[in-house]
Amino acid sequence: MIAQTTYVAATGTDSLVRANQLGASDLLITPTGVGAWAIGGSGWEFAWGAQDDHDSIAAIHRALEMGVNWIDTAAAYGMGHSEEVVGRALEDWPGPRPYVFSKCGLRGDREGKVYRDLKPVSIREECEDSLRRLRVDAIDLYQIHWPVADSDELTDGWATMAQLQREGKVRWIGVSNFDVAQMRLAQEIAPITSLQPPYSLIRRDIEREILPFCLAEGIGVIVYSPMASGLLTGSMTRERIAALPPDDWRSRDSEFREPRLSRNLELVSRLRAVGERHRRIPGQVAVAWTLRHPAVTAAIVGARTPSQVEEIVAASELLLSDREIAEIEGMGQIAG
Prior knowledge:
Elements: E1 5-9, E2 16-21, E3 28-29, E4 32-35, H1 53-65, E5 70-72, H2 81-92, E6 99-104, E7 106-108, E8 114-116, H3 120-134, E9 139-144, H4 151-166, E10 170-176, H5 180-187, E11 194-196, H6 210-217, E12 220-223, H7 238-242, H8 260-278, H9 282-291, E13 298-302, H10 306-312, H11 322-335
Parallel strand pairs: 4-5, 4-13, 5-6, 6-9, 9-10, 10-11, 11-12, 12-13
Antiparallel strand pairs: 1-2, 2-3, 7-8
Helix pairs in contact: 1-2, 1-10, 8-9, 8-11
């Protein structure tokens, strides 16, 4: 089932913006949303390095001014700091409140190392903490961040999510990083509103089974890392990658190292060539490419400054031709 497209009032203007229905929910979300992973700052295993909270709040406000109507965060991002920043941004925002999405099930120890925990008591504790940090009465979409290998713990966790929904603490429930078998298992307990998987030109594995399943089942799909954590933005050079601080997880990621790095940067040159025809940057083309798939409802775009927001949010307006998609994918298959 392809998501229904309509137009809704923008959060920051009097104009109407395009929005897609998320699964079977009543959430009508813009094709791009604000991703709050990086703004969690340093001090945990998958940090992007130190961030300026004032810049982060300004970036969120700029996205809302441009019509974006949802923000995606998680308790794990900065061990709660991302949610705190989002909460402050919402409190200072004078317009209608955007939808707020968060996640649970990925916890951290004193050293900032993360581990998975879907035990009911843990999920309930995380939910209460997230509500407090976000300063909201209910989370619009609450998602399990990562599955666990123990099927009993997974089903107990999902049953707890469904109970939180019945209690009104969360409005809709979804999953992230689940495979088809795990989604089938969860669906036996309660419907899945949405799936949040990684998807980009260098991570296309979900096209084989997961996206067709979601399309057939009417599960909304919100993709994360459509620009491959900055690799496909066009601003990531060898010099910049070499200078990434040790507390930026990308400095340890194989996609930012040889032999993959050369292939990924060559892919950026293809994105740049297509983008120049539309006066767009490579990152916008990369996001537009993910949105062209009929199973994809929306894409998360991370931004840490207002200027980054202005560069990327407009990607939803870019429609690529079949020839351009074929041109990009030809290189994407080599890079992947």
